[in-house]
Amino acid sequence: MSEWDDGDRLKIPAPTGGTLSDGDKGDITVSASGATWTIDAGAVTLAKQANMATASVVYRKTAGDGAPEVQTLATLKTDLGLTGTNSGDQTSIVGITGTKAQFDTAVTDGNFLYSGDVTQYTDEMAQDAVGGMVDTTLVYTDATPLLSRAALTGAVTASAGSNATSLGSFTKAQLTAAVSDGDPLYVGDITGNATHTGDATGATALTVVKIQGKDFPTLSAADDQKYPKYVSASNAFVMTTLAGGGNVSNTGTPANNQVAVWTDATTIEGDTALTFDTTTDTLSVGTGGVMVTGTIELGAATDTTISRAAAGVIAVEGVPILKATSGVGATPTSSTTTAITHGLGRTPVIVRIWGKSGFTSSTSATPVTSSEGVWTSSGNTCIYQAENGTTTIAAQTSTAFSIHLSTSVGNIITGVIQNVGATTFDIVWTETGTHTRGVYMWEAQ
């Protein structure tokens, strides 16, 4: 059985008696070895479509995608919102008839005027109406017709119909009465070159042209924020810009003894954590402490200078003040490494170490050797006593280790201080022969 696919192709099963070749068969094109038959575009005429009822249109009313549907004109009119005799948008009043009352009802914001509603009003009637409204300040000439202003008389005069005005004649008292915000000055009211005493008062500004006989400039908007400065070369005053610039304002409410700090380019603010008591000359800071990037001078500049020598180390007059820790221990009886915790919290500047191969309660033929050594960033240094089997011999020195102890000839232990850090250092012991345990004491600064 044949069927339509989702497009415009008619799917027809292949004939059982053979295979239809591909190609255009007229209104149908065959492809896929005869498996697909496609109707050519424009091949289906209106006559080949299903019959429709009279006065019908084709559009889909049912919601959603689907096949076209045949609908009546009444259904289309309802879907378009057309009711009664309404056949669509009305864009012209041509062909519309009705009574005046109907037109007035149709217009929502006014009423029509029709011929005969207004009595004929002539130009003469209008002119006479205007002439009856004017008073003596205006002149109406009916023959022209013309409406003009009457002549002005008194303090200010003007010809009839003219806009040009001029001052009339009046007394000083009349002029003074006419000025509402001050009193005019007339020739003779002020004695020339009189010495002025007291303040210059009155609503009218006092114009200063000379000060002590020196010319004073006429001020303008360009002189805002300037001050008068006398220049002897020109023997006159000139308006001069103030030196410096910017405004300084405070923020908040400063308290007594607070030290002011700048918070931006124009604002100073009191710091609650930084105060100076002028009564006791005491400077107090908050819990954050004081950070000094340079040196602190106590007394004279060359008297007592406190400075930072290194991390965790301060110096007075260039001499470091070193915190020290110390401890004691026993030398091992074999080659090994001893880790020492010094607890300074920083890398020591120097580590000292003292040692003895043993202690005796009285003079003995068996010698007791001793050693003193140091470590610095330059390395290890040691001074020690050796022995020849019966007595000790002269002191020896070495830069290979920091401690050297011998029990007898050939039985020695030495220690090298290495890996010195912020919390620990190592003593690397090397035994030669068989050494009897001795004791040592260390100090880290």
Description:
- This protein has 445 residues and is mainly β.
- Among the domains are: 3-48, no CATH class; 210-241, no CATH class; 253-285, no CATH class; 322-444.
- It is 7% helix and 37% strand.
- It contains four helices and 33 strands.
- It has helices at 73-79, 100-106, 123-131, 172-178, and strands at residues 3-4, 9-11, 23-24, 28-31, 36-39, 56-58, 70-72, 138-141, 146-149, 156-158, 165-167, 210-211, 214-215, 226-231, 236-241, 249-251, 258-264, 267-277, 282-285, 296-298, 304-310, 313-316, 319-321, 325-330, 336-341, 351-356, 370-376, 379-387, 392-398, 403-408, 411-418, 424-432, 439-444.
- Strands 24-33-26-27-28-29 form a six-stranded antiparallel sheet, with no helix packed on it. A five-stranded antiparallel sheet has the order 1-2-5-4-3, with no helix packed on it. Strands 16, 17, 18 and 19 form a four-stranded mixed sheet that branches.
- Strand 20 and strand 21 form a beta hairpin.
- The mean pLDDT is 80.
Report the principal-axis shape.
Answer: flat
Termini separation (Å)?
107 Å
Structural class: mainly beta
Give the DSSP E fraction (strand runs of 2 or more residues).
35-45%
Overall pLDDT confidence: 80
Stretches where pLDDT is under 50 for at least 5 consecutive residues are none
Q: Helical region count?
A: 4
In spatial order, strands of the major sheet run 24-33-26-27-28-29
The level of helicity is under 10%
